[in-house]
Amino acid sequence: MLGLKKFLFRGGAPSGLPEDVRASLEAWRSSTAPGLDDLHFHTRYLVVDIVSSGLDPEKDQLLAIAASSIWQGAIQPDDTFYVDFSTLDGEGAAVDRQLMAFLLFAAKAPMVTYHVPYVGGFLQRAYKERLGLDFQPQWVDMAWLMPSMFEDKGHTVMPLDHWLELFGMGGGEGRRDAMANTLLLGRLFQMLLVRAVGKQIDTAARLVDESRASSFLRRTH
Predict the structure, then answer these.
(1) What is the DSSP letter of 32?
(2) Residue 80's closest CA among 181, 158, 195?
(3) pLDDT tens profile 100-118
(4) Is there a contact between 85 and 8 (Cβ–Cβ < 8 Å)?
(5) If DSSP codes are grouped into helix, strand and coil, which group holds residue 116?
């Protein structure tokens, strides 16, 4: 773990990036983000989960990233991403390439997770310290949207297990696997999209706005 800490979060401006990573990063920066005004059915969403050594993005370590895409309302089993950084201990260039590979895989799609401050916090720190990138994707936070969309089943932010059990998806035992967790989140997200459409939140742009509004309102009231 100490070796992982030394190269994953190096605590300074990135220097000496491999040329292929530099070139890919520049290409990614100049690429056009997909539009968010299409209906959900025509939008590729990326459901993201991470593994970390603790809950504090400021001091704990990012150990793995997992992602599954939802396209045309369905989970796409052939469109997934997973990297375990602990297997790359001591290979700093390999970490840079895997972080870059995730950016290319994501292709600036809107991202879905449960508790953006946790997941997004770890990703933002990793990208800032490794690649010098201010990682600010369009986030959809299910932790705040679930009680907003399913007011009949919960009025406040609840642990993810609450929703999994409520919808008959089991408890938390299998959720320690990040990839399995993205699939569970994907299934919940499919249900959420149905509710969202019923509330006339029928595009990614509106869903992102609703996520932000739900977070703000529930945090301040």
Answers:
(1) P
(2) 181
(3) 999 999 999 999 999 999 9
(4) yes
(5) helix
